[in-house]
Amino acid sequence: MASSVSTSLAEENRLPPQEKLSPVAWVRRNLFDSWFSTLLTLVSGLVLVWALSLFWNWAFTQANWAVIPANLKIFASGTYPQSQLWRVWVVLGIVLATLGVAAGAWGGVLLQYMIGLGACMGLAALLPLGEQSQGWLAGCAGVTFAAIAISRGRASWRLASILVWALVLPICLELLLGTLTPNLPGVRAEQLSGLLLTLMLAAAALIIAFPIGVLLALGRANHALPVVRIFCTLLIELIRGVPLTTILFAAWLLVPFFLGGITVNLIIRAEVAFILFTAVYVAEDVRGGLQAVSRGQVEAARAVGLNPFQITALVILPQALRASVPALVNEFLTLFKDTSLVFIIGMIDLLQAGRVVFTNPNWLGTQKEVLFFIGVIYFIFCFAMAYAAKQVEKALGLGKR
Amino acid sequence: MTSLSSQPHIQPTWWRDERILKILLQVAFVIAVLVVFGILTQNLTSSLRRLGITFGFRFLGNSANFGITEGIPYDPSESYLKAFVVGVVNTLWLSSISIVLATVMGMILGVARLSSNWLARQLATVITEIFRNVPVLLIVIFWYQGVILTLPAVRNSYSIGGFFFISQRGINLPSLDPSGWLIPTVVILAGAAWGIRKLLLARRPDVGPIQRNSLIGLGVLLLAVACWILFPEPPLRVDVPVLDRFNFRGGTQLSAEFTAMLLGLVTYTGCYIAEVVRGSFLAVQRGQWEASRAIGLTELSTFQLVIVPQALRIMIPSLNTQYLTLIKNSSLAIAVGFSDLFNISSTIINQSGRSVEMFAIIMATYLAINLVVSYGMNWINARVKLVER
User: Fold this and answer.
1) In the sheet that B158-160 helps form, which strands lie side by side, from edge to edge?
2) Contact in structure between B282 and B114 (CB atoms under 8 Å)
3) Euclidean distance between the first and final Cα of chain A, in Å?
4) Which one of A48, A98, B118, B251 has the minimum C-beta count within 10 Å?
């Protein structure tokens, strides 16, 4: 205890002394430093006041916020049949339990998020959302906290909490769409919509695209097998060169031509398009990471007698992936936002569900409210992920020189 | 005692020989790829045969029979190829304007985020974070359905100084109409600028660069005014839009769809560019500021002469990526009904059913545009690159 205090004191002594400014001095220093700074302050202040008053005026006098609570179900699960909604809640419970176990085992920012999420759902259960939803929300919050409590501090569960997703994903998909027992009706894939669809597309694409992307990157960086390298390079450059819209369109119109009579669900085809598109971008990010691993590492590994496979798996990849974490997070954010493009092939994701709401004759003229609400949802997800990534980067000690 | 040379050279069995394994692996890979490719082609041809379509690009000559309201003059009786070209031109026009404006916006926001002014810094941070964390499609739809379509109708357009008019149908702005006298005028003005500079350098070498440039500017300006007055026709006439009974006369119009796409692409990409700009300036070592201060440069000249050239060098590869993303994002025009190359191609596919052929064309066009932009950016990159000895 004593030693930790003394080291922190020593740490403090090494830092430059912090200047204490009075508020007036702070304002003068930060806002009215020179004539240019004063001008900048005035212009920014005007823009700020103008935007805020515009927003305030709209939000509290013109906006018809009733559209949001009235259509919460459409935003969340779109056209998913009301009678089968319990399946969505069960899937949410499973996902939360899995995430809770991971949070307990890994700790850190994930634990903070899961506690926050559980608390939010616990609070939401108290809102007047109808008895059924309240019960489910309370149940989800309970499951989350139970999972965290069970796995808290069990570091040996860490790897398992990642690998288990390979099992959880198909179970969730089957639960959402399939006919589990004869008296459970199957749900058509087109009915999977709203935020539910957005999250499913993004999560599945990321989980599957990541290993493919790593393989593509290794293929492209492999100088021993030129044929594989050329193939990977061609694939990456070709897909990176065209917009995602085109690839989705191809998955919709073109893929049936190549399947020779086999019909594959549109949602799966769209998912494959997302996976391909994300994988090539992941590959480029990982390639950057691979280039950051110094050659000495390979030589040292060879010197201690590792074979090429061991060198890649145990020495190069861990370092390369660690270096490419920031870029990979950016990729996931882009993927999450790009799922909104499925409107092109007629699927209804969160954004499209919003368009369905405000083109409904009962809610005409509510496009600003709906788009604002959807924007806030996207913003919360993206901002939370970006923040988490920053914490992970700090924990890994990236970007420090 | 055995000497090393007396040991027999160990030849590994062939299935453990790395060289042979490599070749075998690659042969297997090629065979696998060829088999998959063969199956796919087989499936494609049989599917097309079932539909009674033969692969080919002849259909491009057929009459398109659909109208396009945007872009270069085009008549519905013209061919699919012409319709596609209209789309390509629209995509290029939209992308190039967006790239220019997004770069300007990104520069301003990026520098503002590094400013010593607290308010400007925070404002820029909030703006970038908002636009970076929502889908570009949402932004485009917001501009289109949330903002532009809720503006007043044409008759009650907002007017900015009587020159720009903003309404539901987009933006009406003055156009520049050149006449036959434009080229002689440009030649005269350029010649004058060159001449004044030469004269000043010869007669008054003591005049500083700022004064010299202002003198040249003044001379050119006076000459330009003279040209506009003396020539029988003004070389470049400004055509200001005038509100008639139902619509505007004169000037040019940016349609509502174009404006929405432009605003969406510029605000989204602009914020990404702001981050690129910020990162590049932060990547310039702090010592560079200190060193320039030590040799007595002012803050502004340090920025202009030392920091910007170095930051520019770091910036260009990332800017290239952003420009390519912007061009690809322009295909979202289909969401608001702007006739870009992707939107027109999808109409052609719907009408003619030629999805495979149109896809080849779309992909080739996007790849070609990307290649040209990358090539241009690489050329610029080579120009600003640090020349190492």
Assistant:
1) B158-160, B164-167, B170-173, B252-255
2) yes
3) 30
4) A48
- Burial of residue B128 (CB within 10 Å: 0-12, 13-18, 19+) is buried
Q: Which of B139, B299, B357, B363 to mutate to test the interface with A (most CBs of A within 10 A)?
A: B363
Interchain contact B120–A (C-beta under 8 A): yes
* B positions 323-382 inside 8 Å of A (CB): 328-329, 331-332, 334-335, 342, 346, 349, 355-356, 359, 362-363, 366-367, 370-371
pLDDT single digits (tens) A177-223:
776 666 677 777 778 888 989 998 898 888 889 999 999 999 988 88
CB A272 within 8 A of CB A239: no
Contacts of A382 in chain B (CB under 8 A): 132-134
Residue A177's alpha-carbon distances to A94, A192, A205, A252, B282, in angstroms, are 16, 8, 18, 20, 50
Q: In terms of Cα–Cα distance, which of A334, A353, A333, A335 is closest to A343?
A: A353
Q: Per DSSP, what are the bridge partners of residue A349?
A: A194
The B residues from 30 to 89 touching A (CB cutoff 8 Å) are: 30, 33, 39-40, 42-44, 46-48
A299 part of contact set with chain B, CB < 8 Å: no
Q: Which residues contact B311 (CB under 8 A, 6 or more apart)?
A: B277, B280, B281, B283, B284
How far apart (Å, rounded) are the C-alpha atoms in residues B28 and A227? Answer: 10
Asked if the Cβ–Cβ distance from B141 to A383 is below 8 Å, we say no
DSSP summary character for residue B336: T
Report the distance separating Cα A57 and Cα A50, nearest Å.
11
For residue B260, which of B88, B142, B347 has the smallest C-alpha distance?
B142
Record: contact B363-A375, CB cut-off 8 A: no
Q: How confident is the model at residue B166 (pLDDT cuts 50, 70, 90)?
A: confident
Residue of A nearest to B370 (CA): A241
Write out chain A residues lying below 8 Å of B142, CB-based: 368, 371, 375
Cα–Cα–Cα angle for B138, B143, B149, rounded to 5 degrees: 125
Q: Which helix (H) or strand (E) holds B166?
A: strand B164-167
User: Residue B214, Cβ neighbours under 10 Å: how many?
Assistant: 12
Q: Is B116 on the interface with A (CB under 8 A)?
A: yes
**What is the residue whose two structure tokens read 């006298």?**
B181
A388 and chain B in contact, CB less than 8 A: no
pLDDT tens digits, B210-253? 788 888 889 889 888 888 888 877 777 777 888 777 777 777 88
Calculate the alpha carbon distances from A150 to A96, A101, A138, A145 in Å. 13, 7, 18, 9
- Alpha carbon distances (Å) from A41 to A27, A37, A49: 11, 6, 12
- Closest residue on chain A to B118 (Cα): A30
Q: Which two tokens mark B40?
A: 């796919």
